[in-house]
Design a protein that fits this description.
Rna Polymerase Sigma Factor, Chain: A; Arc Repressor Mutant, subunit A; single chain
Length: 195
């Protein structure tokens, strides 16, 4: 049984990082519901092992648990996810049906970023999300991903290059599918729980 002050320390140290945990899980799982499950599982693990936490960067510690939880989930569910259904309504070739306003919105660069991020490999997407969206330092990313800081820098460089290339490719396309699924709306974990 845990001591009440241990719970207060857990709440003070870990719970402020729920949004970062959800964002990382969402980008790693590519599914909001799976991300919620992964954050919940990671929080249970973090709570269970909080006594072993020796202080320091609680954010990096929690995000490492989230990362490991997501990768474990993906390894276990890989056989079930071997096929992907194509929603043909997203890739309609009849651009005459779209009004000019819809066409403009689809071609907006900010709308293309989620698609370009999805195109990155998981290890590159992970470091880019942690650096650019979560604002973590190279050292913090190194702790979360359990890789040397030099590897963090090289993966970030490759991720940025591939992202630029992907965005350039998407810019050349006349039609971009309307976002659905994991990139339809970005909600924080707390906002998602309130829905």
């Amino acid at each position: 049984m845990s001591h009440p002050t241990g719970n207060l320390n857990f709440e003070a140290e870990v719970l402020p990082h729920l949004d970062a945990a959800y964002n990382l899980a969402r980008w790693l799982t590519r599914n909001p519901q799976d991300a919620e499950d992964m954050v919940q599982e990671a929080l249970l693990r973090a709570f269970r092992f909080f006594r072993a936490f020796r202080g320091g960067n609680a954010r990096a510690w929690l995000l490492r648990i989230v990362r490991n939880t997501c990768y474990t989930f993906q390894q276990r569910s890989w056989p079930r996810q071997s096929t992907i259904e194509l929603d043909e309504t997203l890739f309609s070739s009849n651009s005459a049906d779209a009004n000019p306003e819809e066409t403009l919105l689809r071609n907006d660069t900010s709308k293309k970023i989620p698609f370009a991020l999805e195109a990155l490999s998981p290890v590159l997407r992970e470091v880019l999300i942690l650096r650019e969206l979560e604002g973590m330092s190279y050292q913090e990313i190194s702790e979360v991903a359990d890789i040397p800081p030099g590897t963090v820098m090289s993966r970030l460089s490759r991720a940025r290059g591939e992202l630029r290339h992907s965005l350039a490719s998407l810019a050349d396309e006349d039609y971009l599918p309307v976002p659905s699924g994991p990139h339809a709306q970005l909600h924080t974990y707390r906002e998602q729980a309130a829905l």
